[in-house]
Amino acid sequence: MSGFYERVIGAPLINYLCGSGFVTRYRAEIVPHATGNVLELGIGSGLNLPLYDPAKVTRVTGVDPSARMRELGAMRWAAAPFPVDYIGLSGEDLALPTASIDSVVVTFSLCTIPNAVRALKAAKRVLKPGGELLFLEHGRSPDHPVATWQDRLNGVWNVLACGCNLNRNMPLLIEEAGFEIHSLGQEYVRGLPRLAGYLSFGRAR
Hints:
25% strand; globular; alpha/beta; single chain; Rossmann fold; seven-stranded mixed beta sheet
């Protein structure tokens, strides 16, 4: 039943919401900073692929366990002006060589990866010295009433949204993994309910 739900309802709905115009404008502020050999954690349906700067990117390696999301993004994968590799695993299981990646990109994925800190530590290991983590995530609100409801509804939301969590403190997770955030923006995005619309976005080393 869960597999049927993800394939027919969950994955298409997430693809639609995460590809909405009011979300894409945030992606467009983050993704073009990627350079060289790029690792994208939770590449999903490839919503970021059209936003990479082909003059700066050599190759994108996408990590994602969902074959259904890849199906939904088949046209984006085919249209990419640079090579795109695919690893059908969760981010915690990353097995790329140490110091082999110039930029790591993660957008709307740390909410879903079961062990986000472990995945971020794996990403840190494969980053070259001076490489950057570029992130755009929704997570825990600083407003107590909103955060309280995020905690109350997280279990139900997790099931309906195919493993997504409402209440993760994204900057804290990134720092726990050993990154130093040097650029951080946080705000509610217009067009999404506050429960799922508090964004953290920026760059870390």
